[in-house]
Amino acid sequence: MLLGSVLIFVAGAIAWSSLQRLYTGTLISAPGIWAMLLALVALLAKEALFRYTMGVAKRVKSKLLEANAWHSRSDVLSTAVVLVALVGAQFGIGWLDAIAAVIVGLLVGKVGWDLLWESARELVDTALPEDAQQDMHQVALGVPGVEGVHDLRTRQSAGHVIVDLHVVVGARISVSEAHEIGNEVSRRLRRHYPALSDVTFHIDPEDDAGEGDPSRFPGLPLRPAVEQALAERWSSLSCWPHIVEYRLHYLDGKITVVVFVDEALETSVATRLPDRLAERASDLPWLGGVEAEKALD
Ligand SMILES: [Zn+2]
């Protein structure tokens, strides 16, 4: 960043003074040892950056980093041109010096501008192009069990690409199955984009695109509060001792309670159970429904 600013300043000074001399016909003074030294420092720094970045790119097999490395190498070449021109101007004579100095000024300025641009770009995270994002979307949708993908966001910074996305899965599949589907989405994205350094997936049991961060809204009661509220309403019922477990589904802003009953409960009673239980708990605003299943043990 500093080197870039200094080079632009030097370039401006060189170009301005030589243009003045070109018009007034004054004899030009040589660019001086400092300009040459600066160009040399820039050249060595860019060459070192090229070697370092290329080494990392080869090691992690990143095409993006490799492109960055070659960009540094092209800067090395233009800086070398600057250096040669500076030396030529130092030992040359007449108006040719002025022309050379203007070219030198422009070249030094370009290197400086590139340095500034590069560091500015790396300070500000940039998203991947739209077609790459569309492609990632399709890769994620191709995983079995994925019913939808939304809020896919990418950021790239200093050769690293970071992606996060929401993956919609079946509303009632298990947590571990949903997690494995998410892992497979990550694996396939990494295979398609080796430069990916970080994939974050968010599992959705239903499509919540555009609804915003759920943590900004009041939530539903968690299991301890649910169990307590249900016990208060159901413990006096004759079927209460047969209830062995609840499975809770948090969908559509409500909780559906699946009640598992033991084998001893008669099937005729069990089939009427959901209606009876739901009626007893109808005052609970968060209750979306009651279902019953026999627990096999
Ligand atoms: Zn979502």
What do you see in this structure?
The strands form two sheets. This protein has a three-stranded mixed sheet with strand order 1-2-3. It is 56% helix and 18% strand. The protein has 297 residues and is α/β, with parallel strands linked by helices. A hairpin with a 2-residue loop joins strand 1 (148-157) and strand 2. The mean pLDDT is 84. The protein has three domains: 2-123; 130-210, Cation efflux protein, cytoplasmic domain (Alpha-Beta Plaits), CATH 3.30.70; 223-294, Cation efflux protein, cytoplasmic domain (Alpha-Beta Plaits). Helix 2 (33-60) runs antiparallel to helix 3 (63-91), helix 3 (63-91) packs antiparallel against helix 4 (94-123) and helix 5 crosses helix 6. The chain starts with a helix and ends with a strand. Bound molecules: zinc ion.
Structure keywords:
297 residues, Alpha-Beta Plaits, 3 domains, 3-stranded mixed beta sheet, 8 helices, 6 strands, 56% helix, rod-shaped, binds zinc ion
Helices and strands in order:
Layout: H1 2-24, H2 33-60, H3 63-91, H4 94-123, H5 130-141, E1 148-157, E2 160-168, H6 175-192, E3 196-204, H7 223-234, E4 243-251, E5 254-261, H8 267-280, E6 287-294
Tell me the number of structural domains. 3
Name the bound molecules: zinc ion
Strand proportion: 15-25%
Q: How many whole angstroms does the radius of gyration measure?
A: 34 Å
Strand order of the largest sheet: 1-2-3
Shape: rod-shaped
Mean pLDDT: 84
Compute the separation of the termini in Å. Answer: 68 Å
Helix run count: 8
Q: Could you spell the SSE succession in H and E letters?
A: HHHHHEEHEHEEHE
Largest sheet: 3 strands, mixed
